[in-house]
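note to self — DONT lose this again. spent like an hour looking for the file last time. sequence + predicted structure for the chain T wanted, 128 res
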Amino acid sequence: MKWIVLAARVLVGLGLTFTGASYFFMAPPALPDLPPAADHFFAAFGPTHWMAAVKVCELVGGLLLLSGRLTPLGVVLLMPIAVNILAWDVLILHKPAGPGIVLVGLLAVVMAGYWSYFSPFFRPNAKM
């Protein structure tokens, strides 16, 4: 199990570190033909710089996973992004078998490997 968690951690870390850094250092790729809902979605991203904030979280979270230090914090930063990618795939592109499901699955594997850090979040009737 240790090697599976390590492989998942490195795959997610490499992928999201690359995509986060490439946003700032490379020309944006040409977008394929997207549904009209996607145009409205992207229209809000440009002027608000929302995508830049997401890419910073991807970069920081990916580096945390790659370094192996503060890995649970990296998962906490990256899981909402992965869920949003999955929601994009399902709700806008209508393709549930996209990169979002892979990313959520790999992060779930990493979460399972670090379960002792995440188990308090799943305890019912939490007390202060």
